[in-house]
């Protein structure tokens, strides 16, 4: 099993690694990352990144997609441990910056002490002071 | 502190959400949360997701979010400034001046929250869209890469791959030299002594530690 860390947290899945490539079943890739392989390319909602022409074999194979390859191609951080069992698909600064400039407070899902998950969007309709702290 | 403020203002469609940035998990925060008995959501963030999403660099930092889910004050220090640097390095005792300054800044910030909780968009402390955008601090590519290193580093540590995790955490620190969240959390995971914090603070010399809050009366 491979652990994939994304914006929505860790997911355990079956993957094939090949050097710096991380190949996932197309449906599994969509479940884990939100990105879907379509005829027009690798897509997240209305945004599609075409498969680079002439380099198709680096990115797609029948029924599977190299998510790490696409991630790097999009300029987003990809990291993995030495055993290639844990992979991190990060977000790039440009995407984050556009999100922030929209001024829409990004949603999140985090547990309280009892493990109950709270989402910021659960509290729409209230003025929210979101404040951090730490024991350290 | 936040629990008292929430009680005072809860009638105004106002909510406090506190988030503990604790890569060691809920148990590291439990004692404080149980003592505060919060009636508001009090959440645990092992991965520092909030820090990444809102581009925060330390604790405590706060974001003000209106009824429609729009940011009216982007991430800023929640009423704390550099006054703590007047603490004694050995005993942690505050000099009188430093203590008064810390208290004064906090009271001004708390009053601003009260004003916003009561008056919403009409509050002088809630920026309009242009004002909020002007005050956003956008992440650099190094910050984005540091966040990715932090996430995998802390996850590897959690799985027991401590040395490998620490390599990623070291790289996260190198990539984000001004991100105290990453540095302080990494020190906490490494069981580093408090003195490393003070050494890095003192090495700033005349440079600020905290980012200034854009609020009259707080320096």
Would you summarize the structure shown here?
The complex is a heterodimer of chains A (136) and B (219). Chain A is of the alpha+beta class and 136 residues long.
Which key phrases capture this entry?
heterodimer; A: 136 residues; alpha+beta; 4-stranded mixed β-sheet; 21% helix; B: 219 residues; mainly alpha; two-stranded parallel ribbon; 48% helix; globular
Describe this protein's structure:
The complex is a heterodimer of chains A (136) and B (219). By secondary structure, chain A is α+β, with helices and mostly antiparallel strands. Chain A is built from 4 helices and 14 strands. Chain A has helices at residues 26-33, 56-59, 67-73, 93-101; strands spanning 2-6, 9-13, 16-18, 21-25, 36-38, 41-44, 47-49, 60-61, 64-66, 78-80, 86-89, 109-111, 117-119, 127-133. In chain A, the strands form 4 sheets. A 4-stranded mixed beta sheet of chain A has the order 2-1-11-10. Chain A has a 4-stranded antiparallel beta sheet with strand order 3-4-9-8. In chain A, strands 5-6-7 form a 3-stranded antiparallel beta sheet. Chain A is globular. Chain B is mainly alpha-helical. In chain B, 48% of the residues lie in helices and 11% in strands. Chain B has helices at residues 2-9, 26-36, 49-54, 96-119, 129-134, 141-158, 162-175, 180-189, 194-202; strands spanning 14-21, 42-45, 61-65, 71-77. In chain B, the strands form 2 sheets. Chain B has a two-stranded parallel sheet with strand order 1-2. Chain B has a two-stranded antiparallel ribbon with strand order 3-4. In chain B, strand 1, helix 2 (26-36) and strand 2 form a beta-alpha-beta unit. In chain B, helix 6 (141-158) packs antiparallel against helix 7 (162-175). The model of chain B has no long low-confidence stretch (mean pLDDT 96). Chains A and B meet through helix 4 and strand 14 of A and strand 1, helix 2, strand 2, helix 3 and strand 3 of B. Strand 14 of chain A pairs antiparallel with strand 3 (61-65) of chain B.
């Amino acid at each position: 099993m491979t652990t994939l860390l994304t914006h929505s947290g860790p997911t355990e899945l079956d993957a094939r690694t090949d050097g710096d490539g991380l190949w996932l079943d197309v449906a599994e890739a969509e479940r884990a990352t939100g990105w879907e392989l379509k005829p027009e390319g690798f897509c997240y909602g209305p945004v599609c990144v075409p498969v680079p022409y002439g380099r198709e074999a680096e990115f797609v194979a029948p029924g599977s997609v190299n998510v790490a390859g696409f991630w790097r191609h999009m300029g987003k951080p990809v990291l993995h441990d030495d055993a290639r069992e844990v992979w991190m698909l990060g977000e790039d600064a440009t995407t984050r910056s556009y999100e922030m400039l929209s001024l829409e407070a990004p949603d999140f899902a985090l547990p309280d002490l009892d493990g109950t998950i709270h989402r910021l969007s659960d509290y729409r309709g209230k003025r929210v002071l979101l404040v951090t702290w730490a024991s350290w | 502190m936040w629990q008292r403020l929430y009680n005072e203002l809860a009638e105004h469609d106002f909510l406090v959400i506190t988030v503990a940035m604790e890569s060691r998990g809920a148990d590291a925060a439990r004692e404080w949360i149980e003592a505060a008995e919060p009636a508001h959501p009090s959440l645990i963030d092992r991965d520092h997701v909030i820090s990444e999403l809102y581009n925060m660099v330390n604790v405590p930092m706060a974001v003000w979010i209106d009824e429609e889910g729009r940011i009216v004050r982007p991430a800023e220090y929640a009423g704390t400034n550099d006054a703590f640097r007047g603490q004694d390095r050995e005993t942690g005792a505050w000099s009188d001046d430093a203590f008064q300054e810390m208290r004064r800044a906090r009271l001004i910030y708390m009053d601003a929250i009260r004003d916003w909780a009561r008056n919403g968009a009409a509050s002088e402390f809630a920026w309009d869209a242009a004002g909020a955008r002007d005050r956003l601090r956008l992440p650099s590519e190094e910050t984005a890469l540091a966040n990715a290193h932090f996430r995998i580093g802390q996850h590897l540590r959690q799985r027991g791959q401590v040395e490998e995790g620490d390599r990623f955490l070291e790289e996260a620190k190198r990539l984000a030299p001004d991100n105290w969240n990453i540095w302080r959390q990494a020190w906490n995971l490494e069981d580093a002594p408090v003195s490393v914090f003070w050494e890095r603070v003192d090495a700033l010399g005349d440079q600020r530690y905290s980012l200034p809050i854009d609020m009259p009366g707080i320096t």
